[in-house]
Predict the structure.
Amino acid sequence: MSSTGELAAQLSALFRSEKLDTSESSSSAATKFITDKLNSQDSQDAEAQCRMLTNIIDACVEEQVAQTISTAVLGEVITLMSESASELSQDVRQTALNHLLSKVQQRTSTFESAIIETRQALARILISDEKWEEAARQLQGIRFEQSQRSYNTKQMFEVYVKTVELFLQADQLEQAAQAQGRAAALVAYVTDIELVNRYRLVQARINDLSQKYIDAAAAYHTISQSGLKDATKQSEILERAVKCAVLASAGPQKMRVMTGLQREKMASSLRCFGLLEKMVLKRLIKPDELQQFSEQLEDHQRSLLTDGKTTMLDHAVREHNIFVLSSLYTNIKFENLGRTLGVDAEDAELMCARMIAENRMKGRIDQIDGVITFEGAREVKEVSAAIFLKSQTAAQPPPMHFRESVAARWDERIVKLCTAVEESVDLLIERQPIYTKMLFRSAN
């Protein structure tokens, strides 16, 4: 077998004798050189093939070999190792690529393209073996941002997105989140909608796995509205959006997201639509209504809270019920609230305190009397009471400027209008539930 020095001399002599003046002719000469050397080995002897390939690689990085020759030959080695239909075994190809990478990765400025192409070729081999994390780490090692050359934005973005996808397949959430940050810096400059949707999907998935359900629901919803050609895929993503929306913490933001989802044409065909609709209509939800929805959740969505007994779904539904009750009652004792929620009074108070502290609900807690006063309902009733008081004292009205008088009359009209609309909607929901569903969806 030829030694490294002999191979280096043969390479230099070959390229001089051929007088190669184009990249195409250099590539052809390099391919012929590598093929001839491999054909001189026993085609069944993988060890001999590995030795020949590693010797060729070693020869390419010898100082006596010109950079143009090294670049051409290494490029053809990478191309040959990347061909899945190659006669070389996958082990031989992977061993050769790993050896090549070990030889050139400390010489980034000289062999930058070879390093990137080698890592991508290794990633493809590892993916075929379903070694997701190892493949992701190969792509993660590509540092476009440190390159002295200019690379296409789409090319860089695709590598970053693929890295995130592989880390997610390997259940490496933290690594996926870090890799996603690199893609986030480029997404605004990418126009390929399919590639952008791949990014949005991994972003939504990271939020989903991190239990940032409101962000995940919004991201999934955006993807479902991006003109997906596959109706099945669109339905699947919309269903993910609904599940995340239901699991999100109660509050105005959750209600806005759920309302948007409920109006989607495909939403009514989803298995999880029933619970979504009840939440949008601000109906109280009983624990026995959750079994079917719970069976549709993924494992991470069924995880228990720190108390070791409450699921994410139980917690989300209890918060929803508090949110509903806040619009129905002016105040309520925690003892009664806990009974409605299926928890003790102390837990009910803690849940209310958290929702108020996070500005998801307005209210005041009286710990002495064990009562919560819901500010939203109280404000509406105070306005109504004030208007009623003014109407009762119309015979002896207090001094009032003209502008204040007009404002008071407008207050009265607004309250009457809101009350009438609310009563009409409640009556419509009660007597024509099917028509109401169609009406709410067509309102979008």
